[in-house]
Structures are given as C-alpha cells and as structure tokens.
Design a protein that fits this description.
single chain, Cell Division Protein Zipa, Chain: A, six-stranded antiparallel β-sheet, 3 helices, globular
C-alpha cells in the first residue's frame, strides 16, 4: 500500500487578494517565533520546511467547469454554503512530496491550511484525502 501525501486545494473567490508574496509574509511571520520551521519562496511557490519534511504552496488557474470540480460536487462531504465553486478559477495547491505513514506532520499541514483561510477571507480549503472542508 502506498502512503498518501498531505494535499489540499484552496478555492479563491474571484475578488480574492491572495498572492504568493502575501502568504509568504503571513507564514514567515507565523513561524519566525521560534517554531521548528523555515519559510522560503521563489517566483511561483512558497515552501514551509519542517526539518527534512516540507509543504509546497502554489497558485494555479483552473476552469471552473472542469472534471475535478464535478467530482467535488458529487463527493459525499457537502461544500460550504458560502462557496461558489463556479466563481473560483484561481486555486492554491498545498501539498507535501513525502508520504506521512505516522501522521507526524498532520498538525503542521492543518496549521498551514488554516493560515491560508485566515489570511484570505472567503477562502475554503478542501483536504484531498477525506474531502473535508475548512
């Protein structure tokens, strides 16, 4: 059996002020308090490093009527009522490259997802494995 990776997608409203620069600054401020994490960025991505394990955050565009949206709509977990999926052509992927067999970084993953939601009002993250929204 293959161990799954942490993966979530943030759906950005059309008027969202999300930017790679902005989430970099927010995460950097959060982790400069002495937590065992560093935050780095390039032109298109932010990476949060927890020792040798990391999460990558990248923005991408996706047509709202795509096949993956249909899967989300058909998923057993309901979407937040405030989310208009058809208006969310900008998305943010939050994912790890390494599996998490012992769920060692589950809280780290949740904290980064919550930071994206808290920093940008009206943003909802769907966790890839369970389909849970937050």
């Amino acid at each position: 059996m293959v161990d799954p990776n942490y993966s979530g997608t943030a759906f950005l409203a059309e008027n969202s002020e999300f930017s790679i620069d902005g989430i970099f600054e927010s995460l950097q401020a959060n982790y400069e308090r002495g937590d065992d994490a560093t935050v780095v960025r390039d032109d298109h991505n932010v990476q949060v490093n927890f020792g040798s394990w990391f999460l990558n955050i990248s923005e991408f565009d996706q047509a709202p009527d795509s096949a993956s949206d249909q899967l989300i709509l058909n998923h057993r977990k309901p979407m937040p009522l405030e989310l208009d999926l058809a208006a969310c052509s900008r998305r943010v992927k939050i994912q790890s490259a390494d599996p998490y067999p012992n769920m060692d970084h589950f809280n780290d993953f949740l904290q980064v997802c919550e930071r994206v939601c808290d920093t940008y009002h009206g943003t909802f993250v769907r966790e890839g494995g369970s389909g849970t929204w937050f």
